[in-house]
Amino acid sequence: MKITLKKIIVSASAIAAIFLGSNAYAADEKCIAKVAPSANLVGCDLSEADLRGKDLSGANLTRANLTGAILIGVNLEKVNLTNTNLSFANLTESNLSRSQIKNADFTGAILLNANLLQANINGIKLNNTDARAANFESSKLNNVVAINSQFDRANFSEATVTNTNLNNNSFTNANLTKIKLESVKLNRIDLTEVELSEGNFFLRKSNNAVLEAVYSMFLGTGLAVGLVIFSRKHKKASN
């Protein structure tokens, strides 16, 4: 019996379909049907689901899998995102204001123009994330790891950032007015043309090397704004 290469390929595809399904990351249709404001979506598989423009305000997405989901323009106001996987999800122009985000994974996610106003963010991963022009105004970020991410034009005015790693990030043209930083790692960051106001940028419990590096970067931008850096070696405000 002659077996052609074409038949072998077809057979291999059939076997893969049996064990993996037509899409290994396909969302659960029952979960998609439950998508609505204040929905209970605990543990739901919504991976790669196209939910653009949906209203999920007030929903409970604890332990939900939204890997690679399309969440463009989705209303996620006041949602619970505890232990939620949002890696590689597209949250462009989504509304995450006043949401509770704890131990969630946003690795590789797109948060372009997303609104995180007054969001409570704790213990999440924001590595390799595109958060350009995102709004973090008055939000609280604690124990966040955000490395190699883009925060250009983002708004962090009056935000509180504690125990957070912000190494290797870009904050070009970002608004840092009245931001409060405590125990934050800021190595190799780009602060070109950032917006500050005198006496409102504070770094505490950081080592002198980090403070000196940050101070040097701000001087290099040529900003005509006030800057206050506190350390054993520096206590100076630019005019």
Ordered list of secondary-structure elements with their pairings:
Layout: H1 5-20, H2 29-33, E1 80-82, E2 100-102, E3 120-122, E4 140-142, E5 160-165, E6 180-185, E7 202-204, H3 208-221, E8 228-230, E9 235-237
Parallel strand pairs: 1-2, 2-3, 3-4, 4-5, 5-6, 6-7
Antiparallel strand pairs: 8-9
E-strand count: 9
Round the mean pLDDT to the nearest integer and report it.
80
Strand residue content: 5-15%
Strand order of the largest sheet: 1-2-3-4-5-6-7
Uncertain stretches = 3-24, 198-239
Relative helix content: 10-25%
Distance between the termini: 87 Å
Helix tally? 3
Number of domains: 2
The major beta sheet can be summarized as:
7 strands, parallel
Which outline best applies? elongated
**Cα Rg:** 22 Å
Give the topology string: H per helix, E per strand: HHEEEEEEEHEE
Which structural category do the helix and sheet elements fall into? Answer: alpha/beta
Task: Describe the protein.
The protein has 239 residues and is α/β, with parallel strands linked by helices. It folds into 2 domains: 25-115, Pectate Lyase C-like; 143-239, no CATH class. The protein contains 3 helices and 9 strands. Strands 1-2-3-4-5-6-7 form a 7-stranded parallel sheet, with no helix packed on it. A two-stranded antiparallel ribbon has the order 8-9. A hairpin with a 4-residue loop joins strand 8 and strand 9. It is elongated. It starts with a helix and ends with a strand. Mean pLDDT is 80; it is low at 3-24 and 198-239.
Protein traits:
disordered C terminus, 3 helices, disordered N terminus, 239 residues, alpha/beta, 7-stranded parallel β-sheet
